[in-house]
Amino acid sequence: MTKLERAEFFSHTNNDNKDHDTGIYVTVMSSDNNTRLASIENADSSGDDSREYKDGSDHPITLHIDAPGASKEACEGFKTKVSIKTNGHDTWRFNGTVTLFFDDGTNITKTKDSISLTDNGASVIF
Question: For position 26, what pLDDT does the model report?
Fold first, then answer.
């Protein structure tokens, strides 16, 4: 049986940056919403300007595997929720991709372009 090995969220910032102190939250769920496959909380948030996602920049984030050993079949049709936690006002415009990697060298990818998240708690599901 092919099993889930690792997961990644990749973003390409379009024409509105992510502030350095805005945290990224990603949750990957099975298609039936019964199993949390992978996630991360408060990624790339810092008091340091190096965590700003400038216009035109690319950023991969490794996700924590919450269902180690999940079968590829169980991961088919997965859903992703991406949200932000801001300190003040922030709009982040980006293209997002989640890739699930399996122990046989295959992967499943899901992409959504032209996402716009504005201010604390904003989210998108794709």
Answer: 98
CA distance 116 to 14: 9
pLDDT in tens, 64-77: 999 999 999 999 99
Residue 49 CB: number of other CB atoms within 10 A?
9
CA atoms within 13 A on the CB side of 61: 24
What does the chain come to in residues? 126
Place of tokens 């019964």: 34
Task: For residue 75, give the H/E element and its range.
Answer: helix 72-75
Q: Using CB atoms within 10 A of its CB, is residue 109 exposed (0-12), middle (13-18) or buried (19+)?
A: exposed
Confidence of residue 48 (pLDDT cuts 50, 70, 90): confident
| Token pair in block for residue 73 | 């079949």
In the chain, pLDDT over 70 holds for what percent of residues?
100
Other C-beta atoms lying within 10 Å of the C-beta of residue 77? 11
